């Protein structure tokens, strides 16, 4: 593998600033890697090679002129295809938006460009971010680089897979109920869901507006912190944006000292239904954290068991409202407009042709939950449960600085394995939904390979709202300890794309 594409984003930025390598050279190396492996992985929906190289040459000119640049200047990044980016199709992996070119940039894309980062292209996802496996994409599934017969998680499987396949050093995701964290867990990468309102949603195609949150995806904790500081912060264009400065995320990631930190293990997020290999690696991670000087406390959050029901009522209700705008009238797909069809017929035919089964399922569930006579019983009750879940977190954080759990109950399952069982698919996010409902910060960190199947396992860290730096503090310390134990990072042990992960040594 090229010595360029397997470097961290921080190292690539250092090389560019020191004129040891050009941004154009680094960008070309990643574009070559995409051409080499993405036919198998299918992480990307669109690659913007010409514009990426133009951006890279502009950064190199600034470096040559001695201009002061940001900490990630010249570093390539992939962007989940839910973010508006002028000149590149933005589809949310749905036929109903196929070919649509947004007339403006999302705030996070604007911030990437202002930081002189290089956008390689748009990554695949479950349609409108509805899913846990990236199999509901209208343009075909993404595959897990650890084993191409397995899912890369969802909804942001494309962003996580492109990192694990070394097609990009950084990626942008969005997390509604686990769409950054769950893919990170099953691909051995790092994924952060910032505090709700900590990163602007302006220009993000909405699924559930009270839950959606943009966030960074990376191969290590420091890179995620650097990207988070680029995209985070107040944005007056987003009415839910928090008007407070970001904490020192990069400093926390570099500190890597957790002596005296109180870490709560959530009792309800484990036990029956959790794979033995996942629980084994999680238990080992707890031992490591204790050995680093943290105080480990078991905590109970009794209302977490209702998270799935509450989440799927709130999320589907908001999705029903948000997706009503896709009617074939103003942009995107239009079907049946032959001059004789009524407006209602065009809308019906367009939605029937343009939306996939999972999108239709969730729209119908949400419409039912919001319908007359059922609103209080379903949507209203779910919001009350959301309050109780937030109170569980508040009570737990009175005793602990951070909470931890497995990120997912199992490792990556095989493509097609859960498509006929929506409830089994939804249970992939059992651990990640509570933090989304409460709007707090959460992260997934790689903690090794399951001894059962040789596939990555993730640990979830949860911190109070606007205390995102605590996730990076624990993440930096745990990552350093694990790298010392393994003698390298987890992704240094990834099999070549297409080679089954079970053939790898799995004892660590």
How are the secondary structure elements laid out?
Layout: H1 9-17, H2 23-41, E1 44-47, H3 49-64, E2 76-80, H4 107-114, E3 118-123, H5 157-164, E4 170-175, H6 181-187, E5 190-193, E6 213-218, H7 221-231, H8 249-255, E7 262-266, H9 276-291, E8 295-299, H10 307-322, H11 343-354, H12 357-370, H13 376-399, E9 402-406, H14 422-426, H15 433-438, E10 441-449, E11 456-463, H16 469-486
Parallel strand pairs: 2-3, 2-4, 7-8, 7-9
Antiparallel strand pairs: 1-3, 4-6, 5-6, 5-10, 9-11, 10-11
Q: TL;DR?
A:
Helix content is 39%, strand content 12%. It is of the alpha/beta class.
Task: Write a structural description.
This protein is α/β, with parallel strands linked by helices and 508 residues long. The protein contains 16 helices and eleven strands. Strand 7, helix 9 and strand 8 form a beta-alpha-beta unit. Helix 2 packs antiparallel against helix 3 and helix 10 packs across helix 12. Mean pLDDT is 95; it is low at 503-508.
SSE string, helices as H and strands as E? HHEHEHEHEHEEHHEHEHHHHEHHEEH
Compute the average pLDDT: 95
Separation of the first and last Cα atoms:
22 Å
- CATH homologous superfamily identity: Amidase signature (AS) domain
CATH class: Alpha Beta
Computed over alpha carbons, the radius of gyration is 22 Å
Enumerate the strands of the largest sheet in spatial order, edge to edge or round the barrel: 1-3-2-4-6-5-10-11-9-7-8
Q: Domain count, please report it.
A: 1
The CATH architecture designation is Alpha-Beta Complex
Measured by DSSP, the beta-strand proportion falls in 5-15%
